[in-house]
Amino acid sequence: MEKSEVINLAADVAKLIGIRMTRPDLIRKHMSGAFPTTTILYTLDYTLWIDAHYIAVDWTGLPGVLYIYISHHHVAEELRDVIKLRKRSGNLTDYYLYDNIAKQLIAAQKHMTASGTDYFLNEHYSEIIQKKGQSNMKNQTAAKKRPQILTLTLCHKCKTNFENSGHTVVNKGWQEDKERCDYCNVGMGVTYGIFNKGESL
Ligand SMILES: [Zn+2]
User: Could you read off the pLDDT of 148-169 as tens digits, one per residue?
Assistant: First the structure.
C-alpha cells in the first residue's frame, strides 16, 4: 500500500480505539527518509503501531497483538523475529503470545501468496477490536483495584524487562510526547503503573 493509504487506514483504526491522530504529516515523515521509524500512539487501553510496512494494535493488560496491515516486504522479517522470541519465551504466557503472532503472520503470508497481492489487510479488524475492547475494559477495571507499586516512565526495553521479571505494566493514560526512561535514562517512553503479577492477574 502507498504511504497515504497506510496513514488513512491507521486514522480509521485510531478513531476506533479513541486516539486522535492529530499529525498525519509527522507520521508520514517518520515513514520516509533514509531511516524510517515506526510511530507508536498510546491510550490507556491500547497501543497502536503505524509503520510504512505494518499497522498493529495491542491491548493493555490483555495478551495479544493484532496485525491489521502488513506488507509482503515485512512479513518474513517479522516472522523470523517472532519465532526467535517464541523459542526464547520463558513462560507459557509469552509462548502463547508469540505463537499467536506467528500464526497471524503465517496466515497473512499464505493469503498474499494465494491472492498474489503484496500486502495483507485484516478485514475483520473492527469487529476484533470491539470484541477484545470489551473484555479489556473488565480487565482494566480489575487493574484499577490492584495495589500499584510504582509509577515510572519506561522505554520499550525496560518495560519488557519489568514484564519479564514478573510485573504487570499498565499504561497510565494518553501521552503524546515521550519522556526519558526513569530506569535506564537512555531510552524514551511513556508513564506506566507497575503491579506485582500475583496481585494483578
Ligand atoms: Zn529504559
Answer: 678 889 999 999 988 888 788 8
